[in-house]
Each structure stands twice: as structure tokens, then as C-alpha cells.
Specification:
72 residues, mainly beta, binds FE2/S2 (inorganic) cluster, 3-stranded antiparallel sheet
């Protein structure tokens, strides 16, 4: 079975990405990522974007806690 990349939301914090991934900026330049799991900022306050630097705690970021199911 092929290795899957998993993206999971940390409560009121970053997206945690585990598995093979390539991250590029808008110009197509790659960010070096050597860790098995990386944390991507989703609060907008990090000074190390696209990575989380812990600022979400300082700014009181609150995210939707769970997947919102579509009605249908
Ligand atoms: S989610 Fe951690 S600094 Fe933005």
C-alpha cells in the first residue's frame, strides 16, 4: 500500500501534515521540509509562514472544531 499523506487540524492551531509533501510559494519555489510532520499556519499570525510558529495561542485563534457536514 502506498504511503498516504495525512492532513489533520490541531484544535485552534495549525494543520499538521504527515507524509510526503512538497510545499511551494506562489513563485514555484520549494520550502525545504525535512521533518516527518510539519505544521502549517491557518491563523494568519505566524511570522514563519507558511509554517506555524505558535502565534495562534497569542492571538487567541479559534477554528471550527470539526468537519461541517453538508445537508443534502
Ligand atoms: S496556526 Fe500556529 S501560528 Fe498560525
Amino acid at each position: 500500500m502506498a504511503e498516504q499523506t495525512r492532513i489533520s487540524a490541531y484544535d485552534n492551531g495549525p494543520f499538521l501534515v504527515t507524509g510526503p509533501v512538497v510545499i511551494e510559494d506562489a513563485g514555484g519555489n520549494e520550502y525545504p521540509t525535512e521533518k516527518e510532520t510539519i505544521a502549517l499556519c491557518r491563523c494568519g499570525a505566524s511570522t514563519k509562514k507558511p509554517f506555524c510558529d505558535g502565534a495562534h495561542s497569542r492571538v487567541g485563534f479559534r477554528a471550527a472544531r470539526r468537519v461541517i457536514q453538508e445537508k443534502g
